[in-house]
Each structure stands twice: as structure tokens, then as C-alpha cells.
């Protein structure tokens, strides 16, 4: 008996009990659909995180001022103005592992220009900032050391700001006012998208750090040139932990901290945060895959159950087939093919449902998805394997019936 | 010219039933020649069904020898027995045993499925056998769409499809009315006339009288083995019954 004939017999047997076959398949359908959707959603999220790591640079360390303690209450990070521009330059100069170190001043304010009026964030930066943040100027020219020295009133616009102020008009060369201070736009930044926390990174204006301090924020001369943060990029191939330790030592020395005294600054390694997120995402994905596998398993047990019922119901048919010459292995093949057919049809329907569900999630929930061929192949292979695994026992049971007893079965 | 088709020697079968050993067959030695039409008779529990199952290779004897068409059967494994059932023996059952929701042609072709006959040849041979039993136009009907007599004729066509040397009929008329029984018996007689060996199990004397030889069983032994010199003609009786029925319909 060839396989084609077996498949035809199997399809006929499945058609006879349409509802039962459909319900049996449902377990596999749901299982396969769940596996495919989970993998697509999980790997989509993973991909987004990987992209962010790439965008951020895996070797970025952010140095921020520490928190103050006033009357036993911690005031939150950045509440202490201990970090200075000079700290930033010193790190670049004295720590060999550091490629660039960019002190940054942050402020917010209203921007007027072109046809728009927009409230945004601005950063006072040094020329190293873009390199530290893996950012490039899309159009125009970057901020140069001369701009810092002369406190030039020049600005780089993030994509969101440029769009909101100027629409389709090229902003380079245009005049804008930031907190009523006139600036000239010298360039636009490449689009960077949302960061990890969903903030739009393109809603930003960059200007020389000196300009920000002297003309926009208006910090008086003579005071320490404090900064909000220092972005530090460690050289490729250098050990991040080692670099972090060196920066810490230098900062403690510069801030004259005694042994046992707490740091008045904090170092954050963003790639560690991302790695942790990635890890938790991976664990989440594993958990979901486990749940999906359980439903596949349950679906498989459903198939075994129905096949056992089917063997019992069709004992006389088995007896007759044996009487007219079917060998045990013919009967085994017949029922095994039936179980596999059931599982594979369920698998294919599950793939369609899974792909459809995935696309729907991508469309309506705006969730990053990635549909690959591998999970689909995996699902087909898995459902076939389930058919074989859970169909084998009932099929073997059928094949071991004695012809005379099967024929007489009532 | 008579050559033996079936030779049994001291064939015995015992079952274990609830810890007790039941002797269903206590040593049967019988020879059936090619071309014979034998009726096996006996009350229930006489061992006639057990004997049939052994002849049909559906069951294996506890002891004794069985030779079918010069081939010793004892000691063959289940695959070899399946092959013998497939190629040598055609079964006709009391309850027809047709596959439900399966066309008559596919039912007939079933034995061919298990000996590797290609699909178009299967269809061709099944159609030829169906025509032989006079149901050529019913090939695509399912068993549920056929009368009992028609179903039994489909079953006989199935028994014939692989050109067996032996037809084993187990109470083939048990579920049929008198006239249909006569028609089915006429078909078996016709096959026998063409040289096919037929062994028929029945407990009805009327049916046994269509055979050339009657073997009676009791308590697992053969108690009587007689030749019937003038077997009844089933075709003639069927025609007579049909005529009688027609007359009844005209003059109730």
C-alpha cells in the first residue's frame, strides 16, 4: 500500500467526522499559531533592542552628578552641582581607554522659527558629543571648536524639531529664536527614533556648550562651570569595567573624596541596562514559548485521544482490512498517516492563523514583529512530529489486533 | 480429476476462557478437493466457526496440520498469513462487512490495495467483478444506498477480485430474506460451476441443500460427512419465488 493511498484513506476518515477532526486540530492550530506569534513578537522586540544598542553605541558610559542628602532625604540624582565641564575634559585627557568624553548641559525652552513655535529640549555640547553618541549630521555642518570658543549662536536641529518648525523647507541657514535668543541653524541631525523609554530622541536642539551656558541658560560667570552629564565613549576593544573603574578613580581624586566617602557622581553603562532588558526579553520569550509548547503538547494529547477512540470505533474495519490481506504494518501506516495528516493540516491552519495574528499585532498594537521562515518550518516539523509521536501508540494498538477478534468486535 | 485443495490433519483449537481451557475443535481431519461446494453445518458451539477461522487463516490452530493449495500453513507468521488471505481466500460474511461511506468499487478493490496493484488496474478489475455480480451501474453507490442482497453481492465481488482459490462464506444468507438468500446462493453456485471451491458455513438445512457435500460438526468433531447427489438449483428457486411474488401482487 503506498503513501498516497494511505493519505486518501486518512482524508476520507477525517472527513467522516468533520467536527471531531476540526476540534482535534484546534489544539494544534492554537499551539502552532501561539508558537509562531510568540517567536515573531519576541524576536521583533529583540531586534529593536539590538538596534537601540547599536544606535547608542555599546561602549557608552554616562556620568551624572550624584544625589545630595539633605536632612536624611536623598534629593535624587543630578540634584548636586558637582560635575563640571573640566571633569569632562580631564577624563578625555587622563583616561587612556576613553575615546571621547563630552560634557553636556541640558535645558528646555520655547523655540520660534520658520512657521512654528515649539517647546523642546536643548543640549549645550562640545564637538565630541556627536561622536560619543554615534550621531551624525544629516545635512549642513556640525558644531566646531571655534563655535565653542566664540559662543557662536549656531544650532543643529533634531529631525522632529526641524519638521515642526520648517515643515518641508530646508532649515539650514534659517534664523530661529531659542528662549528669545536668536540662532542660526547650521545643520540637521539624522533621525534617531525613540529611545528605550519611548522618548523621541529627535525632539532636540544642539548648540555649543558655551553658548548654552552664557547666552541661553544664563549662568553667571565666576561660578563653577557645572554640567548635567558627561557622555563618555570608551575605545573599541577596551574593557568597559576597567574603563569605568579608571573614570571613577579619576573623579574621586578630582572631587577630593576620602576613603569610605560616597561617590558624589554616578556612572551608568547604558549597554548594561540594555543587556538586562535584552536578557529579560529573552526570558519572557522563553516563557511564552514554553506556554505555547504546552498548548502544542495538549493538542498532541488531543490527537492521541481521538486516534484511540477512532481505533476502537473502527475495530471491525481493521478486522476486515486484515481479513482481506492487510498486514500489521499496513494498519500501522494507515493510522499513523491519519494522525500525521490531522496534525499537519492543523499545523498549516495554525501557521496561517499565527502569521495573520502576528501581522495584526504589528499593525494594530504597533509592536515590532519579525516573521522568519525558521519558526514556520519549526512549526511544520513540530506538528508532524506530534502526529508521529502521539499517533504511534494508537496506530500500534490497531496494528496488533488479532484479525479474528477485530472482526467479531461489537 | 480431483486434486485436494484443503487438507487438515487432527486440527485442534483450544481457548483459555476465564482460566478454563475450552476445546473448540478436537482433531478434525478433512480433505476438500478443488471445485467442491461444501456446506459446514452444526449447532452453535459445535466448532464450525472455529474451523472456518482456521481454514481462513484468521486464527492459528493449537495443534494439527493444515495445507492449503499445497502450502503448509502451520508455523507461518502473521504477515505470511495476511498474504495468504489476500491472494488465496475470498471471504463472505454474514454482516457483509463493507466499509461505510465508501463506494462499492472501492470496497471491491480493497484487497488489491494490499498487494500493490496500481490504482487504474484496481479500478478496472473492481469494475469487472462488479459487472459479474450484476451491479455494474451501482459502482459509485455507498453500502447504505444498497439493499442487503446488493451489499452481499458487492461483498462477493470483493471476495473474487484477487482471483482466490477458495471462497469462505460464513452464514452469507443469515441477514437476508428467503428470495435474496436464493439469489446469493445462486451466485455462489454459479461461481462453483466455474470451478471455484466454495466452503459455506450455515445452520440452515435449506441453505446446506444447495451444496454438493455437507459436513456436520458437533462438539468440535465431524459427525457426518455426506455427498448430496442432487443439490437444489438456487437460480431456479429464486425464479420460482419471484414468479410467486409477482402472482401475489397481481392477485392478492
Overview of this protein structure:
Chain A has helices spanning 3-16, 18-56, 85-94, 128-132, 145-149, 159-166, 209-217, 240-254, 270-313, 315-323, 328-364, 373-399, 403-408; strands at 60-65, 69-70, 73-74, 98-113, 116-125, 137-140, 154-157, 175-178, 181-189, 204-208, 229-234, 265-269. Chain A has 410 residues and is an alpha+beta fold. In chain A, the strands form two sheets. Chain A has a six-stranded mixed β-barrel with strand order 4-5-10-7-9-8. In chain A, strands 2-3 form a two-stranded antiparallel ribbon. Chain B is an alpha/beta fold and 252 residues long. Chain B has a single domain (35-62, 78-250), classed as Rossmann fold (3-Layer(aba) Sandwich), CATH 3.40.50. Chain B has a six-stranded mixed sheet with strand order 6-7-8-3-9-10, sandwiched between helices. A four-stranded antiparallel sheet of chain B has the order 2-1-4-5, covered by helices on one side. In chain B, helix 5 packs parallel to helix 6. In chain B, 47% of the residues are buried. Chain A binds chain B through residues 1-2, 5, 12, 16, 316-317, 319-330, 402-404, 407, and chain B through 53, 56, 58-59, 78-79, 82-83, 85-87, 91, 93, 97, 99, 101-102, 110-111, 113-116, 119, 158, 162.
Question: Topology of this structure?
Answer:
The complex is a heterodimer of chains A (410) and B (252).
Chain A: H1 3-16, H2 18-56, E1 60-65, E2 69-70, E3 73-74, H3 85-94, E4 98-113, E5 116-125, H4 128-132, E6 137-140, H5 145-149, E7 154-157, H6 159-166, E8 175-178, E9 181-189, E10 204-208, H7 209-217, E11 229-234, H8 240-254, E12 265-269, H9 270-313, H10 315-323, H11 328-364, H12 373-399, H13 403-408
Parallel strand pairs in A: 5-10, 7-9
Antiparallel strand pairs in A: 1-11, 1-12, 2-3, 4-5, 4-8, 4-11, 6-9, 7-10, 8-9
Helix pairs in contact in A: 1-11, 2-9, 2-11, 2-12, 3-8, 9-11, 9-12, 11-12
Chain B: E1 4-17, E2 20-33, E3 37-41, H1 48-55, E4 63-68, E5 71-72, H2 78-88, E6 89-92, H3 104-113, H4 119-132, H5 148-160, E7 166-170, H6 178-193, E8 197-201, H7 205-208, E9 213-218, E10 221-227, H8 234-250
Parallel strand pairs in B: 3-8, 3-9, 6-7, 7-8
Antiparallel strand pairs in B: 1-2, 1-4, 4-5, 9-10
Helix pairs in contact in B: 3-4, 3-5, 4-5, 5-6, 6-8
